[in-house]
Design goal:
Shape: globular
Number of helices: 3
Largest sheet: 8 strands, antiparallel
Number of domains: 2
Distance between the termini: 50 Å
């Protein structure tokens, strides 16, 4: 079977931002219950959909998809508005089965969303690119007809590059210049890895990052490490933060922030 993708995208070349380490995408059903994926695979039947537990804005999403019947139709929607009562509204990528060949073929899909650009690759071939609204949203897997299998669903947040037209200001510099420091609009809780939990690791990871003028985060780095896995989890979470940007003379400016993420065992 082959995939027909409608109104999709892929950004050619390297991303302007640098992707973090890929992590398993946590999916939930319409009742916010975790979706079990034995062996990394889950199957969806007609009129079934699941969505990501978290919202994402700039990211690289990869997954394998196999359309199981000749009439199978499915879609993946990114930057979607969550709605427990109906499939989500957002940027939709459609998949359709063509022909009657055996349903054993897996297609590798790569979706990249960065700023106002969205792109899709299928088996390393460019499927298309387009301009989209820049916002955060959920990722939704939906099946319209037949049966569809997904596996190896992973996501990496993109660390946006700092524009060259302005040096990020520190908290002290903003204070001296009479500016306003950035404020957290939405935070993301880091995941506590199984290995770190089993080892009884607890403590705080301190991070430094740049808040861009659109409130997204770039150039995340660890300044006070704790544990390799927890450091990575903290960085991934930080990339998902959204801020009200720093203001100076009535305009948004890039700024530097420090954030502590504490891991505690109960």
């Amino acid at each position: 079977m082959h995939l027909a993708l409608v109104a999709v995208l892929l950004v050619t070349g390297q991303a302007a931002g640098s992707p973090g380490e890929p992590e398993l995408l946590v999916l939930v059903d319409q009742r916010d219950r975790p979706v079990e994926m034995p062996d990394g695979t889950f199957v969806r039947g007609r009129d079934q959909w699941v969505r990501s537990e978290q919202d994402y804005r700039n990211f690289v999403l990869t997954f394998d998809v196999s359309l199981q019947t000749p009439d199978s139709e499915a879609s993946v929607t990114v930057r979607a508005v969550k709605d427990a009562r109906q499939p989500a509204r957002g940027e939709r990528i459609r998949f359709q089965a063509r022909g009657l060949s055996p349903a054993s073929r897996w297609e590798r899909v790569r979706v990249q969303a960065e700023g106002g650009r969205l792109g899709v690759q299928v088996d390393d071939a460019l499927a298309g690119t387009r301009q989209v609204d820049e916002r955060s949203g959920a990722i939704v897997f939906e099946v319209g007809k037949g049966s569809v299998r997904f596996r190896n669903v992973r996501i990496s947040r993109l660390d946006r590059a700092v524009p060259s037209d302005g040096k990020p200001l520190t908290k002290d510099e903003l204070k001296i210049l009479g500016g306003q420091a950035p404020r957290v609009l939405r935070d993301v809780k880091p995941s506590y890895t199984a290995n770190a939990m089993a080892a009884g690791v607890r403590g705080t990871v301190r991070l430094e990052a740049v808040v861009l003028t659109d409130g997204t985060v770039a150039n995340v780095r660890v300044t006070h490490p704790l544990h390799k896995e927890l450091d990575s989890a903290a960085v991934q979470a930080m990339r998902g933060f959204v801020f009200v940007p720093a203001m100076l003379n009535g305009a948004a400016v890039p700024s530097i922030v420090e954030v502590d993420m504490t891991f505690t065992l109960k």
